[in-house]
Amino acid sequence: MPDIRAALVTLPWSETLIGSLREALAPAEVVLANRHDRAAISAALKRVDVALIAGDIDSRHVQAPHLKWVHCGHAGLDRSATPAAFARGLSITSSAGRSAPALAEHAMLFMLALGFRLDRFHAAQRAHRWGVSGQKELRPLHGKTLGIIGLGHTGMELAKRARAFDMRVVGYRRRETGCAWVDRVYSRDGGDSLNTLLAQSDFVVLAVPLSDSTHRLIGAPEFAAMQATAYLINMARGKVVDQNALILALRAGRLAGAAIDVAEEEPLPARSPLWDVPNLLITPHFTPPMADRDERALALLLENLRRYRADEPLLNLLTVDDLYSSGDRKQNGGSTLAALLRDIPRRGRRVQHWLRTR
Fold it and tell me: What is the pTM of this model?
């Protein structure tokens, strides 16, 4: 049974939640530090074996001599899924799922706004004009097909809501397993083409983590596979979509519209052409936080503490599939993994064997 001798905590939670975390960590020593106090964090990392942190890992965590497990208090861990972290053999988990219902609502907001062309009605209202051209051709979400790429926490919450709207839901994921609320699941491991989902979807929502295999997952070929009447919604990361290809597709009318909560460069610069692209909705990588978000994150972390001590599989554990090395070219995971295996140090032979047998 893995023991916890000392734990670093930089999570910006209330005293009540930190108190609950202290109780769960007992009898381990708990070192509290502000996430911006580099000196205190560096000092703690010289002796702790667990770190429960706000933000992502960096070279200090990779070099920490006794550190075995890092839990990051947010969802997308592309900045933490580095070759160095995997080579070091760190177990890295996230708080994915703490905001999934709100993110799913955000995606539904985009779908309704795009499908009902809310931007046009709002412009008509500001111009004191009753109605917009083409409004009789608008159709509700009822009966439409939603394609969800990424059936994790957010994807599943979105599927549940879409089914409540009587939509048909298809999904694409890594593993060849079915999902509740999803009518048909396509998978990478099953050899299914992503284009099969794209071709039949009226709305495509991206809810995948950013990794070497999802970097620019959607580009010109994928836009060509979509229906000209379809909409793309990106709730993942900006680099999952080829931004220039998206701009060209919207300007050429190859898509009916798109909505993004993320961009390749954030905050989005004033000079970005995205601001003026037709039929594009933009929100600033912000979803209103759930009232119990921190409580949900604590519940997940407490379960992982139990699992860690019981030597059971951790929830939201990063695997080699999540590796994000550079993102220089689409789907470069194979060459990256080969380089990783060559560079794994002698102390990481167990990790090397695990990677080779994946």
Answer: 0.90
Domains of the chain: 6-97+292-356 (3.40.50.720), 100-282 (3.40.50.720)
- Is 120 marked active-site? no
Spatial strand order in the sheet of 184-187: 184-187, 168-173, 145-149, 203-206, 231-234, 257-260, 280-282
User: Is 237 one of the annotated active-site residues of the chain?
Assistant: yes
101, containing H or E segment: helix 100-115
Give tens-digit pLDDT for 180-234. 999 999 999 999 999 999 999 999 999 999 999 999 999 999 999 999 999 999 9
Give yes or no for a contact between 141 and 288, defined as CB atoms under 8 angstroms apart: no
What is each CA distance from 291 to 99, 213, 229, 288, in whole angstroms? 10, 34, 36, 9
Active-site residue, 266 included: yes
**Terminal CA-CA length for the chain:** 25
Residue of 176, 265, 266, 312 marked active site: 266
Q: Give me the catalytic one of 285, 293, 296, 307.
A: 285
Tokens of 335: 């060459």
